[in-house]
Amino acid sequence: MKRRIASWENGHSVPDEFYGPLLCASLGMSAAELGLNHLSGRDVRLLETRYPPSPEDTFRTVVQIWRADLNGYEPLVLSEPSRPAWSEASLRWLVAPEPSFPSAQGAGGSRVGISDVSMIRTTGGMFAELDDRFGGEHARHSLVQYLSRDVAPLLTGQYTEAVGRALFSTVAETTLLAAWMSYDACHHGLAQRYFLQALRLAQDGNDRRLAGSILSAMSHQATFLGHFTEAATLARAARMGISGVATPTLMAQFHAMEARALARTGDIRACESALSEATKALESRNNSDEPEWITYFDEAELAAEAAHCFRDVNSARQAVAHAQNAMSGSHVRSDFFATMVLADAHLRAGEPEEACRVALDALDLGEQLKSARCVSYLAEFRHRLDTVGDTAFIRDFREQAAENRLWVASGRLPASR
Are 307 and 323 in contact (CB under 8 A)? Predict the structure, then answer.
């Protein structure tokens, strides 16, 4: 028996049909939470993409997802997103009643205070910095481990209503980060499930601003995946749902997300109108009145969003102009995206040599990034470059890029995003 356990722990085998259920029963965890793919037929609920109906359901589901993700449960980690789930979540949130509160708290749970909430917020901030600097695939597993082992017990602890609301909001923000990191790693079904759980946590934390930002993030993912109608709807739902408590920066972000979706549909007039609204909103902001987590969205970020939009409607010159104003110098991955959009815009403008020069700058920027999204940007550029022809300058570019890790990975991906 000891030899079998050692083999399981070292990843050389998996518990069989007899020992697997015994492990689940003794640990009080499902096969999915333990990463036992071959025993997980009964874990259908974990793979559902539904908006949780209650706080208790949210706690149970998000903890199960954290554990299953941590243990590499492939049906979850490799799952595809559900298009109806985006619409259902936005509608359910928009018409939701007053925030709920757990009807009962475990008597055996530990006492949770505001200092515990502050600890989660500070730790989440550290992971956010790692994500920004090194990409979502760098520390994603470590964040999920922290959530599963340190944060999960707090949700079922004992706390006052005021502390509970703060706890739910903070855990929502940290789960949102897990969603972004999963999205950046292109684990799209998993990311969508994290977004849904974060949205419900924000609702019960009575944090409508954060909930709106979560819908905005879901819109970003939907656009990336090519579901433009759903993406525009999510951005509009975010704007509508927090109209009474919205800040200028949040409204700017929501308009920008709508513009991104509209650009991909080819509706140039509506896209430009949304960008104009975003610009006007951002000009009226006062950072001292904004949630700390949205202050990153500044003129450089909006310029990056506009560059994406004009690239997607084939206004290459405008895309170049906006992309040149999008380099913040403080957000590595965002600067990588903006630089690649600039390279792509130069290519579309008939300037392949400048496009290659800028793309090399992006490769230098992205040297430390572990991001499947970054790879997808390079794959799209690589495909477009193939249509230009084989010039000496392009051959030289390919030789310089050949050893770059992200460039090598981009050669394994299809071009479309």
Answer: yes
d(CA 362, CA 341): 10
pLDDT digits (tens, 9 = 90+) for 321-347: 999 999 887 899 999 999 999 999 999
Residue with tokens 């923000």: 173
Q: Which of 103-117, 249-263, 281-295, 380-394 has the lowest mean pLDDT?
A: 103-117
Residue 334, amino acid: S
Are residues 130 and 179 in contact, defined by beta-carbon separation less than 8 angstroms? no
Distance of CA 331 to the CA centre of its chain: 16
Please list, in sequence order, all residues whose beta carbon lies within 8 angstroms of the beta carbon of residue 128, skipping any fewer than 6 positions away.
177
Residue spans of the domains in the chain: they are 1-95+113-206, 208-297, 319-417
Convert the pLDDT of each residue in 292-313 to its tens digit: 999 999 999 999 999 999 999 9
**CA proximity to 306, closest of 276, 343, 348:** 276
Give the predicted TM-score (pTM) of the model.
Answer: 0.89
CB 112, CB 157: distance < 8 Å? yes
Query: What is the DSSP code string of 342-358?
Result: HHHHHHHTT-HHHHHHH
Q: Which fold has domain 208-297?
A: 1.25.40
CA distance 311 to 341: 7
